[in-house]
TrEMBL record:
DNA-binding span(s): 38-57
UniProt GO MF annotations: DNA-binding transcription factor activity; transcription cis-regulatory region binding
Domain of life: Bacteria
Residue ranges of coiled coil: none
Name of the protein described by the UniProt record: AcrR family transcriptional regulator
The keyword Transcription is assigned to this record: yes
């Protein structure tokens, strides 16, 4: 019979990797606002000391920048892919971009939510807003090409069409929750169908 004592449980709080720190920080930014959140708040959320947070990141701004990059890189890639695919019509490329934007939003919902809330109060936010402006301009060009080829109605300004289309996509952050009955692919297909085919019964 082995009378050796059972190993004593390890003391102390569990460790976190940088990705986990980022995810929890973004949740906190979205819940109580970036400006109202301190490194101390993030540390408290994770059950760590402030010095332990600084082991992973240099500043709160670094966490914000990483989250905004996550959202922007996916959207930038979707727009660039559409622009490069010259074998498809502009309307096909626009529709594919709308659908991919929905999938990106679903896959990176907290980061995209944070992106849509920035107001340019810091250099990091201003840089993100400039990248958003460039994406919006590329989308407007794509809409204009679809109008020019006769695929979209020409009695509505292309920039307004673009704002309405992607305003609809962005509004999903207010109610869509991953893991529910509506999959990202189904959501993308539904948004696309309503945007390009309307509500009229076929």
């Amino acid at each position: 019979m082995d009378d050796a004592p059972a190993p004593r449980p390890r003391r102390g709080r569990p460790g976190y990797d940088q990705e986990t720190v980022l995810r929890r920080a973004v949740e906190l930014f979205n819940r109580q606002g970036y400006d109202a959140t301190s490194i101390g708040d993030i540390a408290q959320e994770l059950g760590l000391t402030k010095s332990a947070i600084y082991h992973h990141v240099a500043s709160k701004e670094e966490l914000l920048g990483a989250a905004l990059d996550e959202a922007l890189e996916g959207l930038t890639r979707a727009v660039a892919t559409a622009a490069e695919d010259r074998q498809a019509s502009a309307a096909q490329r626009l529709r594919a971009t709308v659908e991919e934007s929905v999938r990106i939003l679903a896959a990176h919902l907290p980061a995209v939510t944070l992106l849509l809330r920035v107001r340019g109060n810091s250099a990091v936010e201003l840089a993100a807003l400039e990248r958003r402006r460039q994406i919006d301009e590329a989308l407007a060009v794509l809409v204009q090409e679809a109008v020019a080829e006769g695929a979209l109605r020409d009695d509505v300004p292309p920039d307004l069409i673009s704002r309405l289309l992607f305003g609809t996509v962005n509004s999903l952050v207010e109610w869509y929750r991953p893991g529910g009955p509506l999959t990202p692919d189904a959501l993308a297909a539904t948004v696309s169908a309503l945007a390009f085919e309307g509500l009229r019964r076929p």
